[in-house]
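Continuing the series of single-chain predictions for the mutant panel. This is the parent chain; the variants come on the following pages.
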Amino acid sequence: MVVVVGGGVVGLASALALARRGRRVCVLERHARPGLETSTHNSGVIHAGLYYPSDSLKARLCLEGRERLFAFCRGAGVPHVQCGKLIVAASEDEVGALDRVLRSASANGARLVPVDRAFVAAREPHVTAAAALWSPDTGWVDADALVRALAAELGKRDGVWLAGTPVTAFESLPGGGLTVVTPRERIEADTVVNAAGLFADEVARLAGGEAFTIHPCRGEYAELAPRARHLVTGLVYPVPHASGHGLGVHLTRTLGGAVWIGPTIRYQSSKSDYEGDRLPLEAFLAPTRALLPAVEIEDLRLGGSGIRAKLHPPTERFADFMIRRDGRNPALVHAAGIESPGLTACLAIGELVAQIVG
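Parent structure:
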């Protein structure tokens, strides 16, 4: 038996990959239904693999996962679109940043095309750009529908799903493996997959594994009011955030017609506070106008928020995914620190986890 702790897209994809290999799998999720945290509190963008160091898991699994995700969505009827995206230099002093993105994409084998102002005007007539790049392989997926589809596919392969089931303890088994203790049952597992997202460090500690820290980092969103949604037709990104912690406040048009503005970036101590001390609506006006000069404060309204599970503190710029067997407890396999592009890469992450479990 393999127990997967965490019922987000990474946990479900890992469980599905294991079930396809004939393994008995049980997914434990502390919430009443899957995917209620990071998996569905994000932009829903299917990334093309443009930004990450070429030797990183993020780069490799993003490219592999993108193709897997598009194929899965087509087969399972998950609403999605391969719409492409524009990366925009709003002024001449940002053009050099576009060159860095172009070099990074080339090193990763991702398609990215310099385009002129006429191209931008044809696709996004209300966006102002000194220069831009076009990513034809970027898309968008209904993340909630993806979660439901992954859970349904797991059920077809006799995977067990236990909702409302937090893990309270682990106990070592004499012949190896772990007993997973919950408030209602005790489950003997030869392997435990730690896909607990924001709480992966706490699961590792409970299991006697390696010590690491998940740093919660909140991203907040605004939306365009219905009367202003016509100003955006697809995905529009600024040059990457100067801090290195994100891709900047971008514009995301959903299949339902909404236009999301965000996310912002702020490290915080709480892993569950989505609403405390939210930014005022005025904080979104300047970054929105950098892309859409015609927008007024009356065109904006507050949206949702999400919390990234980062493996690095604000003083550092990058940490790769942690996908490997634990160095202290060999019965534990980590899929931790899965921030962006984790949604895009989830199926590739699941395959890698299944390979490690064996």
